[in-house]
Design a protein that fits this description.
The structure is a single chain. The chain is of the alpha/beta class. The chain has a single domain, classed as Rossmann fold (3-Layer(aba) Sandwich). Helices cover 44% and strands 22% of the residues. The chain has ten helices and seven strands. The chain has helices at residues 9-19, 23-30, 34-48, 63-71, 85-93, 129-139, 159-178, 182-185, 187-193, 198-205; strands spanning 53-57, 77-82, 98-101, 114-120, 140-151, 209-217, 222-229. It has a seven-stranded mixed β-sheet, with helices on both faces. A hairpin with a 4-residue loop joins strand 6 and strand 7. Helix 3 packs across helix 4 (63-71). The longest helix has 20 residues, at 159-178. It is globular and about 45 Å long. The N and C termini lie far apart (39 Å).
Length: 230
């Protein structure tokens, strides 16, 4: 797949629909289970904010939304949205109580509807990072929290070995697990292009947020970004 089609919405939707049945297992294998620990950390952070309404954008099969649902008191309402209906079928079957098919670039929610908006490994696939963040700001109440979890590139001696894994090993291994190698060939390129660290913090603050913070995970192969809505 060419790099230019990384954020092609039609391609992304179709690719995720094809891998939906094996998406969860494949993610755990490719990360050696580390992705579970990342999501649990996010769920603890969300719980500490004591929200009433949480929206998990690009929820996919519901991995993060389910962790948040388990971590928070039962009265907290968790909504998972995604533009791929096939992924949401799995989220519902796994126990996510509220799901809705929605494009993250134009969500069908009123302004200031949520206390927390999260997005895990989804912003990177969107056609316009800044536009998507602005849409998340729109549905957040003033003072509400945004949390982005996504891949990043580590610094130092791990950077080149990790890039080799992304481009040479991961697509082949994912292809064996899902039978859909092309659906993962774009991943390395998307991570290379995605802003990280200070660059992502500045991008978030430029879309109506303050106090953006960066929390590197596992030597920097992933990062959590948090900010508050102005």
């Amino acid at each position: 797949m060419a790099i230019g089609t990384i954020q092609d919405p039609s391609y992304v939707r179709e690719a995720f629909a094809r891998i939906a049945d094996r998406y969860v297992t494949t993610n755990h294998v490719l990360s050696m289970g580390t992705d579970i620990l990342w999501r649990r950390k996010v769920a603890r952070m969300v719980r500490a904010w004591k929200p009433g309404q949480v929206l998990d954008v690009a929820t996919g099969t519901g991995d993060l939304a389910l962790e948040i649902q388990d971590a928070c008191p039962p009265e907290v309402e968790i909504t998972g949205s995604d533009f791929c209906a096939e992924m949401l079928v799995h989220a519902s079957r796994r126990g996510l109580a509220k799901t809705i098919v929605a494009d993250a670039m134009a969500m069908p929610f009123p302004d200031a509807s949520y206390d927390v908006v999260t997005v895990a490994f989804g912003l990177r696939n969107m056609v316009n990072y800044a536009g998507a963040i602005r849409e998340m700001r729109r549905v957040l109440r003033p003072g509400g929290h945004l949390l982005v979890l996504d891949f990043s590139l580590p610094d130092g001696i791990l950077r080149n070995p990790y890039r080799w894994y992304l481009h040479r090993v991961l697509p082949k291994l994912a292809g064996l697990l899902t039978g859909q190698t092309d659906a993962y060939e774009y991943l390395g390129g998307s991570i290379e292009e995605f802003p990280s660290g200070k660059g992502m913090a500045e991008l978030i603050e430029g879309q109506g947020f303050k106090d953006a913070e960066v929390h590197p995970l596992t030597f920097g192969v992933a990062s959590i970004y948090t900010a508050q809505a102005l």
